[in-house]
Amino acid sequence: MAKGPLIYRQRFLTRLTHWVWAVSLFFLLLTGLQIFNAHPALYLGKESGFEYNNAVLALSARQTEGGLQGVTYLLGREFDTTGLLGASGGEAHGFPGWATIPSYHDLATGRVIHFFFAWLLAGTLLLWLVASLLNGHARELVPAPSDLRALPGDVLNHARLRFHHTHKYNVLQKLTYAGVMFVLLPLMVLTGLSMSPSFNAAAPWLLDVFGGRQTARTIHFAVMVLLVLFFVVHVLMILLAGPLNELRSIVTGWYRIDPKGDSHAR
Amino acid sequence: MPADLNRRLLLGGLLAAPALLSGCKVFDRLPPDGATRNLFEGANRLTYATQKAVAGDGLAREYSRADIRQGMRANGVTAPADADYQALAADAWADWRLTVTGAVERPLSLSLPDLMAMPGRTQITRHDCVEGWSCIAEWTGVQLSRVLAEARPRPEARFLYFRSMDTIERGLGGNVKYWESHDLRDALHPQTILAYGMNGAPLPVANGAPLRLRTERQLGYKMAKYLQAIEVVPDLTDKGGYWEERGYDWYAGI
Fold first, then answer.
1. How many Cα atoms within 13 Å fall on the side-chain side of residue B4?
2. How far is CA A77 from the centre of its chain?
3. Which of A70, A174, B192, B210 is 20 to 30 Å apart from A4, CA to CA?
4. Reported pTM
């Protein structure tokens, strides 16, 4: 099979920020779960209901004859999640130790690391957003009308694991990356800031946008779940579409595209 | 060949993911005064400077009576076991005094009636705990700025220590009573009050009777309960509070 040409696909800034975000999101996730474990429950509204119920999610532990039982409350229903959520390793904690930094309960350290990487993520995100608007990279990510017409065919190609390597993103890539960069990550920063009593004083309107501090906290958590989901699909797509070529493009910038006329190349 | 290599990488990736995750104990070693910890804590200084600039003199959100849907959740020490505290409580705080000392022109010793005789402020605010929960309650007290106006801080005054009566930790090295500190900017903020009332009643013991601090733009651990003394100082001589000595950020605006 003939090889297609190598093209310079990813700018230096794109590659640099990609890896800064990869490291930052790793630490933000695991320290975020540490912080969540300090009060493993999520609510809707301005405050947390202790004498009434406005919880949407709560991880708790219950002592039973068979030992410690992990109970997950989700939208009015209860599930036994012993070993994963609520109780694991014979101890009561929301998320298990392997999913948090530090692995034991240490809210103070979790916060210190979380805010360090929050600054790093927010700073590089802002840099990337401004640069991408100026150098046209942002335009590459926003689907054009012609892209949307190609959507059904593109979905079919992905479903059949038939990947095209061209000089531009396909429509599912555009939708996904635009969703992460322009919606999920900014939402993460803004809901994070909404939990800050000091920032609340600076921008009280943000509380109203998200429907109260506790709703903002719940959205922060929900967006985390979406980002984890994105990560899983992202890595899976790279592994399926040719990990060496994909990795080379995000490390060196050089990407091998399909030979001309070979639209079905794998 | 490449397809085969890809398949092997795919398999490897799937196997490596859980191993990577369970390797998080790698990050457990972050000693209190190590270089890495100091680097990470540098972000706290950035947060402090930024929030100071962004929030300025802005007010914390004040809520309506309809937003008070439950009692105020009590946290930390909720029933001080200290004998001197209990003796003061038994006497309805008749012998209790709040002292204001340090870098001030006029040191004060104020009784509860003294404080209640000063113009009061009532505010319905949201208390945010560092753990993540929030609870809305109404607080009544005297603005700290009024008390400081009487004490007249000297030019070198920059920080205030708040000393509590409750012992939070008993150890071989002695007992530790709770303490906290703030900068002059937060101390003089209009919503910073020394509260003696909560939800229309005298401040309950669980919430810090007879007097507690409210600094509405920071997290709960900054709002010392069971107050007995305020020291005005030019500089902090420790990390600034009980929880700060245990790794928590001194500026708790987030």
1. 1
2. 26
3. A174
4. 0.93
Q: What is the pLDDT of residues A225-242, one digit of tens each?
A: 999 999 999 999 999 998
Provide, as residue numbers in chain A, all residues whose Cβ is less than 8 Å from the Cβ of B246: 108
Q: Which residues contact A240 (CB under 8 A, 6 or more apart)?
A: A161, A163, B6, B10
Are the beta carbons of A46 and B136 separated by less than 8 Å? Answer: yes
d(CA A163, CA B10): 16
Scanning B37-96 for CB atoms below 8 A from A yields 37, 39-44, 46-47, 51, 54-56, 58-61, 63, 67, 69-71, 73
pLDDT tens digits, one per residue of A106-117:
999 999 999 999
Q: Which domains are assigned to chain B?
A: 59-246 (3.90.420.10)
Q: CB–CB of A46 and B63 under 8 A? A: yes
Closest CA to B69 of A43, A263, A147: A43
Which residues, other chains included, contact B141 with Cβ-Cβ below 8 Å and sequence gap of 6+?
B115, B120, B121, B193, B194, B195, B196, B197, B211, B214
Which ipTM was obtained for this model?
Answer: 0.92
Write the CA distances from B185 to A195, B115, B144, integer angstroms: 22, 21, 11
Top CATH class, A6-38+106-256: mainly alpha
Q: How many other C-beta atoms are found inside a 10 Å radius of the C-beta of residue B181?
A: 23
Q: Which of A113, A197, A239 sits opposite B128 (nearest CB)?
A: A197
Distance between CA A150 and CA A146 in Å, rounded? 6
Helices A213-241 and A243-251 cross at an angle (nearest 10°) of 120
The residue length of chain B stands at: 254
Tell whether the model's pLDDT for residue B155 goes beyond 60.
yes
- Residue A69 has what pLDDT? 95
CB pairs under 8 A between A and B: 169
pLDDT digits (tens, 9 = 90+) for A46-82: 999 999 999 999 999 999 998 999 999 999 999 999 9
Q: Where are the alpha helices (DSSP H) in chain A?
A: 12-37, 107-135, 137-141, 145-149, 151-159, 171-178, 185-194, 197-202, 205-210, 213-241, 243-251
For tokens 């540490």, name the residue.
Answer: A34
With contact defined as beta carbons under 8 Å apart, do A81 and A63 qualify? no
Interface residue B10 vs chain A (CB under 8 A)? yes
**Contact A198/B217, CB-based, under 8 Å?**
yes
